[in-house]
């Protein structure tokens, strides 16, 4: 089997949401000597990008999206150690580092977990702090890892004020310009995001990844 055929098997397995097939196809390609970055970019990432398009077109729904993300994670688990051990350059002009968490007083994490997985699949370095995370913990981690983006979610309307607190703390410490702030959750609207001074929100995980790419472009002065 030639390289392109092996890459195509990986891409198809991702689109079909088949974790077992993705694992097998990825390991087969690695065993055959295919470059890990080629597998990542042309197989795994290309597949998840197509899944994102299908989701936005209404041909895929949340269950299919989640299956494909899990398949992507399985493949990523095989290639990521190789990329890191060989110090291969997987850098990209529109990716960066994200600290993500469900804001304090809220323990809902399904949406947050999906966004974190999609961001990781999209090439971002993601630090997922979990649920019910104090604002100070989030800002401290962002400073520690030199994050580009802070992403917080809340399903409960009673938890939303902590999102405003996050933005206000960043402003008060003079660090607001260092980070792009994304907010999300079922009750978060674009109007609310603008009101509290966040940089944006999205309706779903696919849009969240696209928003993150756009914000990275803006942060580094590359335009939209």
Comma- or semicolon-separated keywords:
alpha/beta; 9 helices; 224 residues; four-stranded parallel β-sheet
Distance between the termini: 40 Å
The average pLDDT score comes to: 90
Number of helices: 9
Series of secondary-structure elements, N-terminal to C-terminal:
HHHHEHEHEHEHH
Rough shape? elongated
Strands in their spatial order, largest beta sheet: 2-1-3-4
Biggest sheet features: 4 strands, parallel
What is the number of E strands? Answer: 4
Strand content: 5-15%
- Percentage of residues in helical conformation: 55-70%
How would you characterize this protein structure?
The chain is of the alpha/beta class and 224 residues long. Helices cover 57% and strands 9% of the residues. Strands 2-1-3-4 form a four-stranded parallel β-sheet, sandwiched between helices. α2 (19-31) runs parallel beside α4 and α4 (62-85) crosses α5.
Concise synopsis of the structure shown:
The chain has 224 residues and is of the alpha/beta class. It is 57% helix and 9% strand. 42% of the residues are buried.
Task: Record the SSE blueprint.
Elements: H1 3-15, H2 19-31, H3 36-56, H4 62-85, E1 97-102, H5 110-121, E2 125-128, H6 135-145, E3 149-153, H7 161-172, E4 180-184, H8 190-196, H9 205-219
Parallel strand pairs: 1-2, 1-3, 3-4
Helix pairs in contact: 1-2, 1-3, 1-4, 2-4, 3-4, 4-5, 5-9, 6-7
